Amino acid sequence: MNQRPYTVVLIVPTGIGASIGGYAGDALPVARAIAQICDRLITHPNVLNGAQLYWNLPNSLYVEGYGLDQFAAGNWGLRPVHQNRVGLILDSGIEPELHTRHLQAADATRATLGLNLTDYVVTDAPLNVELRTAASGASWGTIGNPGSLLRAAEVLLTQAKAEAIAVVARFPDDLGNEALQAYRHGQGVDPLAGAEAVISHLVVKTFQVPCAHAPALLPLPLDPDLSPRSAAEEIGYTFLPCVLVGLSRAPQFVTQPSPHSETIWADAVDALVIPATACGGSATLSFSQSRTQIIAVEENKTSMRVSPEALGMKVIQVHSYLEALGVLVAHRAGISTDALSPSLSSLRYLSPL
Protein backbone atom coordinates (compact mmCIF):
# COMPACT_ATOMS: atom_id res chain seq x y z
CA MET A 1 0.00 0.00 0.00
CA ASN A 2 1.44 3.38 -1.01
CA GLN A 3 1.88 6.14 1.53
CA ARG A 4 -0.15 9.31 1.07
CA PRO A 5 1.53 12.25 -0.72
CA TYR A 6 3.85 14.17 1.62
CA THR A 7 2.44 17.71 1.67
CA VAL A 8 4.19 20.87 2.91
CA VAL A 9 2.81 24.39 3.31
CA LEU A 10 5.35 27.22 3.04
CA ILE A 11 4.24 30.63 4.33
CA VAL A 12 6.17 33.90 4.31
CA PRO A 13 3.59 36.55 5.29
CA THR A 14 3.30 39.58 3.02
CA GLY A 15 4.40 43.10 3.90
CA ILE A 16 6.23 42.40 7.18
CA GLY A 17 9.81 42.84 6.01
CA ALA A 18 10.82 39.17 6.05
CA SER A 19 14.57 38.99 5.49
CA ILE A 20 13.89 36.06 3.12
CA GLY A 21 10.68 36.42 1.13
CA GLY A 22 10.08 40.09 1.88
CA TYR A 23 11.45 41.27 -1.45
CA ALA A 24 11.05 40.43 -5.15
CA GLY A 25 10.48 36.68 -5.16
CA ASP A 26 13.51 36.01 -2.96
CA ALA A 27 11.77 33.10 -1.20
CA LEU A 28 11.50 31.26 -4.51
CA PRO A 29 14.83 29.42 -3.95
CA VAL A 30 13.41 28.13 -0.65
CA ALA A 31 10.25 26.96 -2.42
CA ARG A 32 12.29 25.27 -5.14
CA ALA A 33 14.35 23.39 -2.55
CA ILE A 34 11.33 22.25 -0.52
CA ALA A 35 9.52 21.18 -3.71
CA GLN A 36 12.34 18.70 -4.32
CA ILE A 37 11.71 16.83 -1.07
CA CYS A 38 7.91 16.74 -0.91
CA ASP A 39 5.15 15.45 -3.15
CA ARG A 40 3.04 18.62 -2.90
CA LEU A 41 4.06 22.13 -1.93
CA ILE A 42 1.26 24.56 -1.08
CA THR A 43 2.33 28.19 -0.95
CA HIS A 44 1.15 31.66 -1.90
CA PRO A 45 1.93 34.41 -4.45
CA ASN A 46 4.31 36.31 -2.13
CA VAL A 47 6.62 33.28 -2.24
CA LEU A 48 6.37 32.41 -5.94
CA ASN A 49 6.00 35.85 -7.57
CA GLY A 50 9.23 37.39 -8.85
CA ALA A 51 7.97 40.18 -11.15
CA GLN A 52 9.40 39.25 -14.57
CA LEU A 53 10.89 36.07 -13.09
CA TYR A 54 9.20 32.80 -12.12
CA TRP A 55 9.99 29.10 -12.00
CA ASN A 56 7.88 26.17 -13.01
CA LEU A 57 7.30 23.92 -9.99
CA PRO A 58 4.95 21.17 -11.23
CA ASN A 59 4.18 19.92 -7.71
CA SER A 60 3.41 23.36 -6.22
CA LEU A 61 -0.01 24.91 -5.65
CA TYR A 62 -0.28 28.71 -5.96
CA VAL A 63 -2.90 29.73 -3.37
CA GLU A 64 -3.86 33.33 -2.55
CA GLY A 65 -3.57 34.30 1.13
CA TYR A 66 -7.27 34.52 2.01
CA GLY A 67 -7.89 31.21 0.26
CA LEU A 68 -4.95 29.69 2.13
CA ASP A 69 -6.47 30.84 5.43
CA GLN A 70 -9.79 29.23 4.50
CA PHE A 71 -8.00 26.05 3.44
CA ALA A 72 -6.06 25.85 6.71
CA ALA A 73 -9.28 26.32 8.70
CA GLY A 74 -10.83 23.36 6.87
CA ASN A 75 -13.48 25.51 5.21
CA TRP A 76 -12.22 25.19 1.64
CA GLY A 77 -10.49 22.44 -0.32
CA LEU A 78 -8.03 22.80 -3.19
CA ARG A 79 -8.71 21.09 -6.51
CA PRO A 80 -5.62 20.94 -8.77
CA VAL A 81 -6.11 21.87 -12.43
CA HIS A 82 -4.18 21.44 -15.67
CA GLN A 83 -4.96 24.97 -16.84
CA ASN A 84 -7.11 27.98 -15.93
CA ARG A 85 -8.55 30.60 -18.26
CA VAL A 86 -7.13 33.77 -16.71
CA GLY A 87 -9.04 37.04 -16.92
CA LEU A 88 -7.16 40.35 -16.70
CA ILE A 89 -8.41 43.51 -14.98
CA LEU A 90 -6.62 46.79 -15.70
CA ASP A 91 -7.20 49.82 -13.47
CA SER A 92 -8.65 52.73 -15.48
CA GLY A 93 -6.21 54.93 -13.56
CA ILE A 94 -3.27 53.45 -15.52
CA GLU A 95 -1.76 55.86 -18.08
CA PRO A 96 -2.02 54.88 -21.77
CA GLU A 97 1.63 53.90 -22.26
CA LEU A 98 1.73 51.83 -19.07
CA HIS A 99 -1.61 50.28 -20.06
CA THR A 100 -0.13 49.19 -23.40
CA ARG A 101 2.98 47.77 -21.73
CA HIS A 102 0.82 45.51 -19.57
CA LEU A 103 -1.25 44.32 -22.52
CA GLN A 104 1.97 43.51 -24.38
CA ALA A 105 3.22 41.52 -21.39
CA ALA A 106 -0.06 39.59 -21.30
CA ASP A 107 0.14 38.86 -25.04
CA ALA A 108 3.74 37.74 -24.60
CA THR A 109 2.71 35.10 -22.06
CA ARG A 110 0.14 33.82 -24.58
CA ALA A 111 2.59 33.66 -27.48
CA THR A 112 5.70 32.51 -25.58
CA LEU A 113 4.32 30.44 -22.71
CA GLY A 114 1.02 29.32 -24.23
CA LEU A 115 -1.14 30.68 -21.42
CA ASN A 116 -4.91 30.82 -21.88
CA LEU A 117 -6.15 34.36 -21.27
CA THR A 118 -9.62 35.78 -21.83
CA ASP A 119 -10.27 39.24 -23.22
CA TYR A 120 -9.47 41.92 -20.63
CA VAL A 121 -11.59 44.43 -18.72
CA VAL A 122 -10.84 48.00 -17.64
CA THR A 123 -12.43 49.16 -14.37
CA ASP A 124 -15.26 51.68 -14.72
CA ALA A 125 -13.53 53.99 -12.23
CA PRO A 126 -9.93 54.34 -10.99
CA LEU A 127 -9.26 52.00 -8.05
CA ASN A 128 -7.43 54.78 -6.13
CA VAL A 129 -5.03 52.62 -4.14
CA GLU A 130 -3.50 54.30 -1.08
CA LEU A 131 -0.55 52.94 0.89
CA ARG A 132 -0.31 52.79 4.68
CA THR A 133 2.21 51.63 7.29
CA ALA A 134 1.22 50.13 10.64
CA ALA A 135 2.98 50.92 13.92
CA SER A 136 4.74 47.55 13.71
CA GLY A 137 6.26 48.58 10.38
CA ALA A 138 4.03 46.24 8.34
CA SER A 139 2.61 47.68 5.12
CA TRP A 140 -1.07 47.78 4.24
CA GLY A 141 -3.37 49.87 2.08
CA THR A 142 -6.85 50.79 0.96
CA ILE A 143 -8.85 50.74 -2.30
CA GLY A 144 -10.91 53.87 -2.94
CA ASN A 145 -13.31 52.10 -5.33
CA PRO A 146 -13.65 48.43 -4.36
CA GLY A 147 -17.01 48.20 -6.15
CA SER A 148 -15.31 49.00 -9.44
CA LEU A 149 -12.89 46.10 -8.91
CA LEU A 150 -15.68 43.65 -8.11
CA ARG A 151 -17.81 44.72 -11.08
CA ALA A 152 -14.86 44.14 -13.41
CA ALA A 153 -14.22 40.70 -11.91
CA GLU A 154 -17.88 39.78 -12.32
CA VAL A 155 -17.77 40.66 -16.03
CA LEU A 156 -14.76 38.37 -16.52
CA LEU A 157 -16.33 35.50 -14.60
CA THR A 158 -19.79 35.68 -16.17
CA GLN A 159 -19.17 36.92 -19.73
CA ALA A 160 -15.61 35.74 -20.46
CA LYS A 161 -15.90 32.57 -18.34
CA ALA A 162 -12.61 33.32 -16.60
CA GLU A 163 -11.50 30.77 -13.99
CA ALA A 164 -8.88 32.98 -12.32
CA ILE A 165 -8.42 36.74 -12.07
CA ALA A 166 -5.25 38.84 -12.48
CA VAL A 167 -5.52 42.46 -11.34
CA VAL A 168 -3.21 45.32 -12.31
CA ALA A 169 -3.88 48.41 -10.18
CA ARG A 170 -2.13 51.77 -10.50
CA PHE A 171 -0.06 52.27 -7.35
CA PRO A 172 1.27 55.63 -6.13
CA ASP A 173 4.75 56.65 -7.31
CA ASP A 174 6.86 58.13 -4.51
CA LEU A 175 10.46 58.12 -5.64
CA GLY A 176 11.65 60.02 -2.57
CA ASN A 177 9.96 57.71 -0.09
CA GLU A 178 12.46 56.46 2.51
CA ALA A 179 10.71 53.08 2.81
CA LEU A 180 11.01 52.57 -0.95
CA GLN A 181 14.70 53.45 -0.93
CA ALA A 182 15.33 51.08 1.98
CA TYR A 183 13.46 48.31 0.16
CA ARG A 184 15.52 48.82 -3.01
CA HIS A 185 18.64 48.42 -0.88
CA GLY A 186 17.46 45.18 0.74
CA GLN A 187 16.20 46.62 4.01
CA GLY A 188 12.83 47.31 5.61
CA VAL A 189 9.37 46.42 4.36
CA ASP A 190 7.94 46.18 0.84
CA PRO A 191 5.71 49.30 0.82
CA LEU A 192 3.33 47.78 -1.76
CA ALA A 193 2.77 44.27 -0.43
CA GLY A 194 0.07 44.95 2.16
CA ALA A 195 -2.14 46.84 -0.28
CA GLU A 196 -1.69 44.10 -2.88
CA ALA A 197 -3.00 41.57 -0.38
CA VAL A 198 -6.11 43.69 0.25
CA ILE A 199 -6.94 43.64 -3.47
CA SER A 200 -6.61 39.89 -3.96
CA HIS A 201 -8.34 39.08 -0.65
CA LEU A 202 -11.41 41.06 -1.73
CA VAL A 203 -11.80 39.18 -5.02
CA VAL A 204 -11.17 35.74 -3.52
CA LYS A 205 -13.51 36.33 -0.58
CA THR A 206 -16.30 37.60 -2.88
CA PHE A 207 -16.07 35.10 -5.74
CA GLN A 208 -14.06 32.10 -4.36
CA VAL A 209 -11.77 32.02 -7.40
CA PRO A 210 -7.96 32.28 -7.62
CA CYS A 211 -6.70 35.87 -7.81
CA ALA A 212 -3.37 37.67 -7.65
CA HIS A 213 -2.23 41.23 -8.20
CA ALA A 214 0.55 43.09 -10.00
CA PRO A 215 1.09 46.80 -9.30
CA ALA A 216 1.45 49.28 -12.18
CA LEU A 217 4.29 51.72 -11.53
CA LEU A 218 6.51 54.03 -13.53
CA PRO A 219 10.05 52.65 -14.00
CA LEU A 220 12.41 53.73 -11.24
CA PRO A 221 15.68 55.57 -11.95
CA LEU A 222 18.78 53.43 -12.23
CA ASP A 223 20.40 52.63 -8.87
CA PRO A 224 23.90 51.06 -9.05
CA ASP A 225 23.61 49.98 -5.39
CA LEU A 226 20.40 48.02 -5.86
CA SER A 227 20.03 44.92 -3.66
CA PRO A 228 19.91 41.59 -5.55
CA ARG A 229 16.81 40.73 -3.47
CA SER A 230 14.92 43.66 -5.02
CA ALA A 231 16.36 43.49 -8.53
CA ALA A 232 13.66 41.33 -10.16
CA GLU A 233 11.23 44.25 -9.97
CA GLU A 234 13.53 46.58 -11.92
CA ILE A 235 14.23 44.65 -15.11
CA GLY A 236 11.07 45.55 -17.03
CA TYR A 237 7.93 47.66 -17.22
CA THR A 238 5.57 45.27 -15.47
CA PHE A 239 5.36 42.64 -12.71
CA LEU A 240 2.54 40.83 -14.52
CA PRO A 241 4.25 37.73 -16.06
CA CYS A 242 4.78 35.81 -12.80
CA VAL A 243 1.16 36.48 -11.76
CA LEU A 244 -0.26 35.11 -15.01
CA VAL A 245 2.00 32.06 -14.81
CA GLY A 246 0.97 31.36 -11.22
CA LEU A 247 -2.75 31.80 -11.87
CA SER A 248 -2.64 29.63 -14.98
CA ARG A 249 -2.35 26.53 -12.78
CA ALA A 250 -3.65 27.79 -9.45
CA PRO A 251 -5.96 25.24 -7.81
CA GLN A 252 -9.67 25.96 -7.76
CA PHE A 253 -11.34 26.46 -4.40
CA VAL A 254 -13.86 23.83 -3.30
CA THR A 255 -16.25 25.42 -0.84
CA GLN A 256 -18.57 22.45 -0.31
CA PRO A 257 -17.85 18.77 0.44
CA SER A 258 -16.68 17.31 -2.84
CA PRO A 259 -16.76 13.80 -4.32
CA HIS A 260 -13.57 14.55 -6.27
CA SER A 261 -10.84 12.35 -4.84
CA GLU A 262 -8.13 14.77 -6.00
CA THR A 263 -9.41 17.60 -3.77
CA ILE A 264 -6.88 18.43 -1.05
CA TRP A 265 -8.08 19.33 2.45
CA ALA A 266 -6.17 20.70 5.44
CA ASP A 267 -5.91 17.30 7.14
CA ALA A 268 -3.61 16.21 4.30
CA VAL A 269 -0.93 18.75 5.30
CA ASP A 270 2.06 17.10 6.96
CA ALA A 271 4.26 20.12 7.69
CA LEU A 272 4.17 23.92 7.77
CA VAL A 273 7.28 26.11 7.45
CA ILE A 274 6.97 29.66 8.81
CA PRO A 275 9.26 32.49 10.02
CA ALA A 276 9.73 32.14 13.79
CA THR A 277 8.60 35.70 14.58
CA ALA A 278 5.44 35.55 12.43
CA CYS A 279 3.38 32.77 13.99
CA GLY A 280 0.19 34.77 14.55
CA GLY A 281 -1.38 34.44 11.11
CA SER A 282 -4.74 32.77 10.64
CA ALA A 283 -3.39 29.79 8.68
CA THR A 284 -0.62 29.12 11.20
CA LEU A 285 -3.04 29.27 14.13
CA SER A 286 -5.35 26.83 12.36
CA PHE A 287 -2.55 24.35 11.61
CA SER A 288 -1.33 24.60 15.22
CA GLN A 289 -4.59 22.94 16.29
CA SER A 290 -3.93 19.94 14.04
CA ARG A 291 -1.32 17.20 13.72
CA THR A 292 0.64 19.26 11.20
CA GLN A 293 4.31 19.57 12.17
CA ILE A 294 5.21 23.26 12.34
CA ILE A 295 8.81 24.26 11.62
CA ALA A 296 9.75 27.81 12.68
CA VAL A 297 12.79 29.38 11.00
CA GLU A 298 14.69 31.81 13.25
CA GLU A 299 16.97 33.24 10.56
CA ASN A 300 14.05 34.71 8.62
CA LYS A 301 13.57 37.88 10.68
CA THR A 302 10.41 39.97 10.29
CA SER A 303 8.92 43.16 11.75
CA MET A 304 6.50 41.03 13.77
CA ARG A 305 7.18 39.77 17.31
CA VAL A 306 4.77 36.84 17.47
CA SER A 307 6.81 33.86 18.58
CA PRO A 308 5.52 30.29 18.98
CA GLU A 309 6.35 30.47 22.71
CA ALA A 310 4.10 33.52 23.16
CA LEU A 311 1.20 31.53 21.67
CA GLY A 312 1.95 28.25 23.44
CA MET A 313 2.50 26.71 20.03
CA LYS A 314 4.38 23.40 19.73
CA VAL A 315 6.95 23.72 16.95
CA ILE A 316 10.39 22.57 15.92
CA GLN A 317 12.61 25.66 15.94
CA VAL A 318 15.48 25.69 13.43
CA HIS A 319 18.07 28.31 12.63
CA SER A 320 17.83 28.32 8.83
CA TYR A 321 15.88 27.01 5.85
CA LEU A 322 18.78 24.64 5.20
CA GLU A 323 18.12 23.11 8.62
CA ALA A 324 14.38 23.09 7.92
CA LEU A 325 15.04 21.02 4.79
CA GLY A 326 16.78 18.41 6.95
CA VAL A 327 13.87 18.28 9.38
CA LEU A 328 11.43 17.82 6.47
CA VAL A 329 13.49 14.96 5.03
CA ALA A 330 13.50 13.19 8.42
CA HIS A 331 9.79 13.87 8.96
CA ARG A 332 8.88 12.50 5.55
CA ALA A 333 10.97 9.38 6.24
CA GLY A 334 9.22 8.85 9.58
CA ILE A 335 12.47 9.34 11.48
CA SER A 336 12.43 11.08 14.85
CA THR A 337 14.81 14.04 14.86
CA ASP A 338 15.97 12.84 18.31
CA ALA A 339 17.48 9.79 16.62
CA LEU A 340 19.76 12.07 14.59
CA SER A 341 21.31 13.57 17.72
CA PRO A 342 24.28 12.01 19.56
CA SER A 343 22.52 12.57 22.91
CA LEU A 344 19.53 10.22 22.65
CA SER A 345 18.06 9.70 26.10
CA SER A 346 16.61 6.44 27.42
CA LEU A 347 12.89 5.80 27.68
CA ARG A 348 11.39 6.77 31.03
CA TYR A 349 8.90 4.78 33.05
CA LEU A 350 5.39 6.20 32.93
CA SER A 351 3.47 5.41 36.10
CA PRO A 352 -0.18 4.35 35.76
CA LEU A 353 -2.95 6.66 36.99
Descriptive report:
The chain starts with 6 loop residues before the first strand and ends in a 20-residue tail after the last helix. The strands form four sheets. The chain has a six-stranded parallel β-sheet. The chain is globular and about 75 Å long. It has helices spanning 28-35, 45-48, 65-72, 96-113, 146-158, 178-184, 193-207, 240-248, 282-287, 321-333, and strands spanning 7-10, 40-43, 60-62, 77-79, 86-90, 121-122, 129-133, 139-143, 164-170, 211-216, 252-254, 271-275, 293-297, 316-318. It has two domains: 7-80 and 266-334, Rossmann fold, CATH 3.40.50; 86-253, Rossmann fold (3-Layer(aba) Sandwich), CATH 3.40.50. The chain contains ten helices and 14 strands. It is 29% helix and 17% strand. With 353 residues, the chain is α/β, with parallel strands linked by helices. The model has no long low-confidence stretch (mean pLDDT 93).
Notable traits:
Rossmann fold; 353 residues; 10 helices; 17% strand; alpha/beta; 2 domains
Q: Could you tell me how far the N terminus lies from the C terminus, measured between alpha carbons in angstroms?
A: 38 Å
Which stretches are poorly predicted, pLDDT < 50 over at least 5 residues?
Answer: none
Indicate the CATH topology of the largest domain.
Rossmann fold
Q: What is the helix content?
A: 25-40%
Number of strands: 14
CATH top level of the largest domain? Answer: Alpha Beta
| Shape call | globular
**Contiguous helical run count:** 10
Give me the strand/helix succession. EHEHEHEEHEEEHEHHEHEEHEEH
Mean pLDDT: 93
The structural domain count equals: 2
Q: What characterizes the major β-sheet?
A: 6 strands, parallel
Which structural category fits the helices and strands? alpha/beta
CATH architecture verdict of the largest domain:
3-Layer(aba) Sandwich
Strand order of the largest sheet: 3-2-1-12-13-14
Strand content: 15-25%
Rounded to the nearest angstrom, the radius of gyration is 21 Å
